[in-house]
Amino acid sequence: MKKNLSLPYVTKKEFILGLITTPIQLLFFATSLVIADIVAKIVGLFSKEAVNTIFRWESNTVLYLLKFISGAKFYFNTKNVKNLPKDRPIIIVSNHQSLYDTAIHNMFLRKHRLVYVAKTQLGKWIPTVSVCMRAQGAALIDRENPKQSVLAIKKMGQRIQEEKRAVCIFSEGTRARDGKLKEFKDAGIKTLLKYAPDAIIVPAAIDGSWKTFAYKYFPVPFGIKIFVEYLDPIDAKDCDISTITQILHDKVERKINEFRGC
């Protein structure tokens, strides 16, 4: 179908169908977030790990809603995370296009007790997300305060080195709302590697999820395609920390271009 010039991101059919399905999808989405938030706060009184389980369940729920109500099509290649060791820290270095990216990583890295480097706002007021970020001990950083950010990431690096778990960092520093890959920030990756020298680094490429919010939450276009691939792992012991950020960026960029047939 030919794309309408007034609809720069999707076809006219996808846009119109999105107008119909989005209210239903958002209703179930909001309801599930509120319910999960209440449950997470209750179980959090007894177990932080139980809160993480609620976070994973809710992540699966919002992806299923996107698939079965908004007709999203997912194309996953996760072979490189299936055999990741559980006795070493893991650093997922991902690009970032939408709020759904967190749900995607939660779904595939649950066995590695995934935690996040995230902005402080995510630990404050978002139903389910905030209580879960606080419970898992996410590294909540203030982008206006570099000293605080580096200290929080340092503590996270020390933690994953000791606990042998996974952390995800969205290295662009913010969402690419138009799908255009931004430069990766150096400081976060290098700080994690400095304090988690035994880490396995896994670049992750996501494309298409930005279209869910291309029209400022309404509509969510019907039938968008979302591609996800975890690329070949890199042993931190074998990499040059001074150039690793650019290497990771280039790998993710090449994969996104591959998704788009460039």
Give an account of the 3D structure.
By secondary structure, this protein is an alpha/beta fold. The chain has one domain (12-259): Glycerol-3-phosphate (1)-acyltransferase, CATH 3.40.1130. It contains 8 helices and 8 strands. Strands 1, 2, 3, 4, 5, 6, 7 and 8 form an 8-stranded mixed sheet that branches. β3, α5 (129-136) and β4 form a beta-alpha-beta unit. α2 packs across α4 and α6 packs parallel to α7 (186-195). The longest helix is centred in the first third of the chain and has 32 residues, at 12-43. It starts with 11 loop residues before the first helix and ends with a helix. Residues 1-7 have low confidence and may be disordered.
Q: Count every beta strand, where a strand is a DSSP E run of 2 or more residues.
A: 8
Helix and strand string, N-terminal first? HHEHEHEHEHEHEEEH
Number of domain units? 1
- Main pleated-sheet profile: 8 strands, mixed
Instruction: Count up the helices.
Output: 8
By CATH, the topology is Glycerol-3-phosphate (1)-acyltransferase
Beta fraction? 5-15%
Low-confidence stretches: 1-7
Q: Termini, distance in Å?
A: 20 Å
Our Rg estimate from Cα atoms comes to 18 Å
Q: Helical percent range?
A: 40-55%
Under the CATH scheme, which architecture would be assigned? 3-Layer(aba) Sandwich
Question: Key features?
Answer:
single chain, 262 residues, alpha/beta, Glycerol-3-phosphate (1)-acyltransferase, 8-stranded mixed β-sheet, 8 helices, globular
